[in-house]
Amino acid sequence: xxxxxxxxxxxxxxxxxxxxxxxxxxxxxxxxxxxxxxxxxxxxxxxxxxxxxxxxxxxxxxxxxxxxxxxxxxxxxxxxxxxxxxxxxxxxxxxxxxxxxxxxxxxxxxxxxxxxxxxxxxxxxxxxxxxxxxxxxxxxxxxxxxxxxxxxxxxxxxxxxxxxxxxxxxxxxxxxxxxxxxxxxxxxxxxxxxxxxxxxxxxxxxxxxxxxxxxxxxxxxxxxxxxxxxxxxxxxxxxxxxxxxxxxxxxxxxxxxxxxxxxxxxxxxxxxxxxxxxxxxxxxxxxxxxxxxxxxxxxxxxxxxxxxxxxxxxxxxxxxxxxxxxxxxxxxxxxxxxxxxxxxxxxxxxxxxxxxxxxxxxxxxxxxxxxxxxxxxxxxxxxxxxxxxxxxxxxxxxxxxxxxxxxxxxxxxxxxxxxxxxxxxxxxxxxxxxxxxxxxxxxxxxxxxxxxxxxxxxxxxxxxxxxxxxxxxxxxxxxxxxxxxxxxxxxxxxxxxxxxxxxxxxxxxxxxxxxxxxxxxxxxxxxxxxxxxxxxxxxxxxxxxxxxxxxxxxxxxxxxxxxxxxxxxxxxxxxxxxxxxxxxxxxxxxxxxxxxxxxxxxxxxxxxxxxxxxxxxxxxxxxxxxxxxxxxxxxxxxxxxxxxxxxxxxxxxxxxxxxxxxxxxxxxxxxxxxxxxxxxxxxxxxx
Length: 687
Prior knowledge:
9-stranded antiparallel beta sheet, two-stranded antiparallel ribbon
């Protein structure tokens, strides 16, 4: 930059245009290299922020309004951060004068010579725009206030100074470089997208920035071009200055002119928003959306495999499975014996539907082990060894089986090894279990045990020996083990083959050969012949086979024959009828009716009969009373010594005596009644 590019003011006053712009550097963040430190003054006396504090009335080092850097350095740098990219019109610099006249004799002019001013979007000066570089000033001509017009855009305004290597100018310059800045003012618009003297005019559309005075675009927004940035980027270009080439968009279409994205996706071999990223290994096709088929690497455009095919596949694109009966890497392995001749899985060689006869395993390549045959070797031989394909036995059959394949059960009542053993007495003499000989439904009559070869143990008989011989057998619980018939007859009172029936009616005793007595209303006991109830009239005893004793008759022989029988008390033991008739004066079957007489003798006979009967009754009654009285008197002394049993027997005896007395009284009454009924009027009545 030459002197024509810079207007030097020797007065603080500015022109009217400058007055319209704003000092956009005021109180913004700053920084300098090599700050100065003093033992007598605080650090903020020389701080870098003093250059933008708006104070410039004291231009000395110790006035607290200037920036001072340390001595002894060849370069010096200071910058202000405008905090955003702004449109700049001009930059004003106030240099340190120490408040002394500014001329060649002022020692600080040599420190100002050779300075640079940059505007950048970073803190690196070389990334930005050089607004001014002093190459012509001398100690006599350099101004203390420099106003530099620099209509650019930027975020950082950088002051830089370096001591030259040029010996011709070195004499004019100070030995070391310094930041002797009392104020730097940056005038421009604080808002982007505007221009004009009062920053009120908007920049044209799509301009990134426009010239602060004229509004001419100073760079278009990304994606636009032209004098006023009114045109989008050309075909297949996008971005800032339209300098970036589009990626491989689908169908050869151009990308978005601003951000370079392919709105319709990518062509083959690339992916990403801008379709510039090659497909990673294993992917190919449009948007790299397809995986390489059955190979690790393939051409990202065509998908043709560039590495060997995965196991089980073949062809340029590794899409073809191995041919029939082959599998594995490079399809070089042969399949095993899959069922029905089917091919195996082309990848791992497995037979998905199982194996053919004689082999087993996932790949059906392992011969059946001993004792197995058939599909998948899933069938056991019925012998120790057999042909692994057909199953025909090559050794003896296992117990219970016969035939070429040992698949036929033993039959004909045989079982076991070579069907050489006979079955036991199975129920219904059915076939026993062909292997172990057990009778599945139990044993026939007379046998027990798993094999039904053991006869019933003593006292048992029948199917599975589950029945017990009758205890009424002649020898208790001893019978035929098959039929259960008692061997040796029955116990007394029982009959039938198994002695399970009591003697038939009116029979009892051993072999039911004895006839029952004269029992009343029921049969006698089948074992001992005893009558469970009373005997028929005229009989007595346990078996009712004894007739009543002489002088007694009727039920239980309790009745006495009449005194008026011709042979006293000689009557029929059943009916009580007098055997030889009645004595004189009595009649009827039992001779208790008075015989009829003539009128002359009725009175006398009646009187004599009544008198005789009365005497007899009184005699009997007196004897009975005397006997009872004497008996009871004798028993009183013995009561204390009697046991409970004796008392009981005594009470029963007394009871029987009371019954006898009662009976006698009853008979007497009957006798008197009978006599009374037949009595005629006595002679005394006539008198």
